[in-house]
């Protein structure tokens, strides 16, 4: 009896040791879509996608190149379960959810609202582990990573039916665009009648020392991509220097270009680093200030003028040489996702449907947001995007140079 | 005592059976093997070593390996024939010798050292003095004070930094007014942000550790020692200096290590109070690299941090001999005489009261007060609202965010948090007791020491790096095929509740096992040996003797871990999925989005939960977190 107990104890402790290491008989390979790690010896399922799956095949199989009418997609989506899961960077997707479920009874939209950095991290880890939770990704392209590393490698797919995108500027069509946001300089309207800032170089002068709010570009890919583009267009910065100060810029040995010189002198002029656009807006726009700073933040925050009573505005038309770059919000269908038809239906819905007048886009039609489709009216009070001085984004350049700019930023921070 | 491994129990081996053959060599070996295999200590130690290797050593090795392996994002920078995953010294060069090394490593490291040294000096002195006042003197209102002084420990440290900003915020940053500014008092920049502010906030947070450790040590010091000194005519300061102080010195040094490591690794406070003025510490650097998918660089920084922490502990071990040696100080004197403070009694009481009011209650009151303010920065009565607690969604207030009690997500997160905290602290405490058993019974064995050292590793790894480690380890499954069976060595757990539980348990094992060890040390081996002779097996002994005797210690350890996990943010932030969000994360997100009031509401609910649980545990189970921490 005692012996039995002891044996039981041994077995128990061993099973404790092994309890976390599951054990299963090798089954015949299930179809594609499950974890790709099925090779013989010790193997990890991460990173390398197995060569036998040609991602384009899946996209063709589920008809991402087709332009099925929404009614047909609705039927097919219901057949595959009536669900769509979207990883999004916008809290406004909750509002779209309510409308979508009302307009398409039987459909359920599950939005996961996460920040852009976490979204990429989470999606990548899941994808590598063979988990396919998300059907659609909605994020911002800043660095060219999504374009080159995800769409380029078939991890994400474009869905660009002509019924939606026929009239969209082909320049934007490397991805599936949803809308544009900008980062712009905000000022306090209680203290200033018009924007006190017209050139980036002002921010290197004693007058603005310690009175401008920014975010740490080492922590914010959008800002870093903007500086990388600024470096690409360093000539513009040199010219603007001359326009503003009246003399040619003299570069120091550690300032390879006028853009580098700007970054260094900007950082030396005591910027206030905020944690995010909301904080920037609060610092700039809180009422009752006598000496408020100016701040660089996302254009969509202009809404807070009405919502929180902040005294803010921007004046991008007078800013030289440029306000920065646009941040394109894009949509993408996840390779081998579970609800491809639901994904197609929802993307069409989100872009306002085939005529562009549907209400799917309405939660995004606010100040500081620009729709991509010419059919969708520009939100009331919005400036024309084409009028705002911006640098064109060269994803390939940004992709290959952003790390150097990051190091330069950190070295002079 | 003889350790169990060497105990041969001839009485129990089946030699009672008729046997004429001499005791053969073969049988001797067989019995040795038999004893080794059935000895509970050996089994436990083996299981512990295997599990700890799996959960601690493997991730650590993996982390070290990663720092020598090229990541995708850097391949495109290096160009040429660089391949993903190839061996590289790129990261170490980058961090140690490149143009950004000064800003990435040396400057932040210097800042961190400055903060850690100041915090451990000031915070520990503060904690030790308060502990002495509350344990050894006749200070009045002790019950109140001893509850009040540990309250800061129940609130996440970054909540206090928010309170600090609310009070001292000045014009430099712009935005809404700070409280002092509102009253017309201009606060200087150096006080509002940067190192002074960081040290001050960390001190009023971490002094609690020193208080807990030192007061536990003081309680175990026999007051007869001091009385003897008094009889021999020593003055009070002399007794304090020559008797009391040396006796609690190990506890003080212990709290110095603890505070030092904690303040080196803490992220929340320096991020709230430092970043706005470009003041970086090694932990904010680490956080930023890992957040920006520069994982390899982040791991490199983590390893440097681990090395520093190890050196720190090594020095301390040399200074105080072996760690925990003070735990064996003799049993309590039946009754201890309190020191008469005399004419110092009133001033000291007032001083302590002021400290409690400013360092403990004021941050709480500020946070609470802010939750009733419709707009931040307007301290007038007209601005009063209950919206953030019970309001219905109003599109004009923060884009329609409802008050927390009206937010279904909030209740979901409360359930998540409670589930995580209860499951984790239960398992961690039980593991801690078992590890404590191994540590206490195997102190003189190689296996015991190995377990002790393995358990200690998570303590050295900064939370944020530890989370990142688990993320890469459990992101995908690793399998091995043996004889036609596929065995999953590492399952893909990312995105599951299990991985949150696992990471929280393993990270808190050092605490749990210290609590367990000190608990087990108090249970004399003789009791177990007596039961063994009477024929009780290990399960019986554990259930009938060890567990009942260690119940209070168990509750104390449980409380310690409960509170700690309740506030946990850095550790799980990277592993969390939207569905598994917990309260600290919710509060942190709100605050990052600028919704201060809602963030404070959540923080206050967290505080209330901890306070309530602590109060219940203290009242009904006699739990005492000092006992858990003290060891």
Q: Nutshell version of this structure?
A:
The complex is a heterodimer of chains A (413) and B (631). Chain A is an alpha/beta fold and 413 residues long. Helix content of chain A is 35%, strand content 15%.
Count of the domains of chain A = 2
- Number of domain modules of chain B: 2
Nearest-integer average pLDDT of chain B: 81
What ranges of chain B have pLDDT less than 50 throughout 5 or more consecutive residues?
1-16, 322-334
- Identify the strand order in the major beta sheet of chain B: 1-2
Please tell me how large the radius of gyration of chain A is. 26 Å
Spans of at least 5 consecutive residues with low confidence of chain A: 8-55
Shape of chain B: globular
Number of helices of chain A: 14
Overview of the structural elements:
- The complex is a heterodimer of chains A (413) and B (631).
- Chain A is α/β, with parallel strands linked by helices.
- Chain A has helices at 2-18, 55-61, 70-79, 93-103, 116-128, 145-151, 162-165, 221-232, 234-245, 258-268, 277-285, 304-307, 340-350, 395-412, and strands at 23-25, 43-44, 83-88, 108-113, 136-141, 156-157, 176-188, 212-215, 272-274, 294-298, 312-314, 326-334, 370-371.
- Chain A has two domains: 56-180 and 327-384, Periplasmic binding protein-like II (D-Maltodextrin-Binding Protein, domain 2), CATH 3.40.190.10; 181-326 and 394-412, Periplasmic binding protein-like II (D-Maltodextrin-Binding Protein, domain 2).
- Chain A is globular.
- The relative contact order of chain A is 0.17.
- Chain B has helices at 25-38, 40-66, 72-78, 90-96, 101-136, 142-148, 157-168, 179-182, 189-192, 195-220, 223-231, 236-265, 268-273, 282-291, 295-320, 345-371, 387-390, 408-441, 446-460, 463-474, 497-521, 525-533, 538-549, 551-566, 570-573, 583-592, 596-621, 625-630, and strands spanning 478-482, 485-490.
- In chain B, strands 1-2 form a two-stranded antiparallel ribbon.
- In chain B, 48% of the residues are buried.
